[in-house]
Amino acid sequence: MSDKIASYYSTSRKTIKLYKKVALEIIFGTMVVNAWVMQKKFGTDNSVTILQFRESEVGFNLSEIKAFLMLRHDILISERQLKRYLKQLNLYRRKNYTDLRIISDFIDQQILGSGSLHGYRWMHLECLQNGSVVKMNTVRRLLKKKDPEGVELRSRNRLRRRAYHNKLPNYMWHVDSYDKLKPYGIAINGCVDGFSRRIMWLRAAKSNNNPRIIAGYYIESVETLGGSPQTLRRDMGTENCWKAGFLMRKTGWKSKEKIPNTNILPAHLYGTSPHNQRIESWWSILRKHNSQYWMNTFEQLKDDNFCNGTDLDKALIQLCFMEIIQGELDEIIHEWNNHRISNSRNNRAPLGKPNVLFNVPELYYTHDYLVEVTNREIETRRSECLFVQDITIISDFIDQQILGSGSLHEYRWMHLKCLQNGLVVKMNTVRRLLKEKDPEGVELRSRNRLRRRAYNKGPNYMWHVDSYDKLKPYGIAINGCVDGFSRRIMWLGAAKSNNNPRIIAGYYIE
C-alpha cells in the first residue's frame, strides 16, 4: 500500500506532505462521508464510487478526506475534483458561518453544565460537532466574555509533563480505574491505546472492584475490533489481578507479523500508577472537562445535608445520575477520539487525531499490532466475564429479595435463588453483592453460625417430625418432617391445626 501511495504522489512533494496527515474515522468530520453512496461514471467502462460529503463535527481537511478515500475506498481523485464536488453540495469550511447568537446560546448552555470546565479549543470542537461553522478565535472571545473567571483559572493550571512514547497501535493498552466519584456510588473504569491515545472504553458503573466487570469491558472491545492488544498495562489493583490470569489462558492469540529488532512484551504488565502514565495523565483531562463538575455537584448535596454517604444515598445518586454521567462520558470519547492532538515541548509521540492514528498507522510509517481473535475464542471467554447489564439484573433481584424474607438468606441460598430464577451467576459474585448491599445482615449471620454434631447413618433411617407454632396465634399451624441423613424435607404443611394426630398421619401417609 505504501509503494502504491508513494508512486501515485511522486510528482508532488506537497501532496506527499499532506498524505502524512490522513484522517481515519470518516463517520465524523467537518466534511464527513454520508451513510449512502452516489454512483457517478467517468468514461465508458470505468465506474468510480464517489461518497457524498456533508457538514458534520470533527473538522477533517481536504487532504485528509482525499487520502482517506484513496486508502480505504480505492477512490483516486484530485484535490480540485474534491473541491468541485463540495462546491456543488454547497459545503464550505470558511463560508456560511453560523449566526453569532446561535453560537452564544450554545456556549451559554454548555457553561451551565460540565462545559464550564472546557477551554476554548474544546468548546470550539463542541461547536463544530453540534453542526455550527465558527472560527476558533470567535469561540475564544465569546468564552472570555461569558466566563472570565473560568478562563483565568484554566490559564493558571497549565502543567508540563514528561514525554511518553509507544511503538504501535494495539501494542499496549493502559487500563485503570477512576475513584473520584466513588464516594458517591459512581465507579469509572477506562482504557487508552498507548500509541494513538484513543479511548478504548470509558464506563461508569456501581463498582470497578470486580475483576469480572473489567474483563467484560475488555472482551467487548476485543469483540468490536476482532482482536486484542499485544500487552495490557495496569497497576496491582484487585480488579486487575484476575485479568492477568484471564490473559494467561489465551491460547492461539498470536500476532501475524513481528516487529523487527523489538522485544515482544508479555500479555500483561504490572506496575505502580506513575508507570501507567498514559491513562493516569488522561484522568486529569477527564477531571477538567467533566468529573470536577459532578464532584462539586455531589459535594454541594452533601453540604446541604441531602447526601450523607449512606448506601441509600448512593443508590439514589446511581438511579438519578448514572445514565446522565455515562452519556457525558460517551460524548467525551467521541470528542477526544476525533480531536487533533496539538504539539508540545519535547513531544515524541506522533501528532494527529486519535482515530486517525489508531486506524491508519501506515500514514505514520508503522503498522497495526492487533492480535486477531476468532469469534469462537471470544465466546469461550465471555462466560468468565460479567457485563454491566447482567450485574444490574442480578443486583435488582437481590434488592427485591432483601426487602422480604430474603434478608435472612446467606449468599449460598441467595445464589440458589438466582439460579432458580434463570440468572447465570457465580456464587462469589452473589457473595460480594450481598456483602455490599446488606453488610449488617451478613455480620449478624456470621455471628450466629452454630456447629452441631453430625447425625449420619443413611437415608430413610430416621425421619424427624415436629410442629412449628410461631404463626399459631394467628391461626396458621405448620407441621414438617425431615430425613435425618439427607436433610430432605419430606413434607411441610400449613393448616388450621397441627394438634390433630389424624392430620399429621395424613401428611405421613401421603
Characterization of this structure:
Strand 9 (231-234), helix 10 (238-248) and strand 10 form a beta-alpha-beta unit. The termini are far apart. This protein is an alpha+beta fold and 510 residues long. A 5-stranded mixed β-sheet has the order 7-6-5-9-10, with helices on both faces. The chain has a 3-stranded antiparallel β-sheet with strand order 12-13-14, with helices on one face. A two-stranded antiparallel sheet has the order 1-4. It is elongated. The protein contains 19 helices and 14 strands. Helices cover 44% and strands 13% of the residues. It folds into 5 domains: 2-88, no CATH class; 100-156; 177-381, Nucleotidyltransferase, domain 5 (2-Layer Sandwich), CATH 3.30.420; 388-447; 463-509, no CATH class. The chain crosses the membrane at residues 21-38. This is Integrase core domain-containing protein.
Secondary structure elements and pairings:
Layout: H1 2-8, H2 13-19, E1 31-33, E2 38-41, E3 47-50, E4 53-55, H3 62-73, H4 79-88, H5 100-111, H6 120-129, H7 136-146, H8 148-156, E5 172-178, E6 187-193, E7 199-205, H9 211-225, E8 227-228, E9 231-234, H10 238-248, E10 268-270, H11 277-303, H12 311-337, H13 354-359, E11 371-372, H14 375-382, H15 388-402, H16 411-420, H17 427-437, H18 439-447, E12 463-468, E13 477-483, E14 489-495, H19 501-509
Parallel strand pairs: 5-9, 9-10
Antiparallel strand pairs: 1-4, 2-3, 5-6, 6-7, 8-11, 12-13, 13-14
Helix pairs in contact: 5-7, 6-7, 7-8, 9-10, 9-14, 15-17, 16-17, 17-18
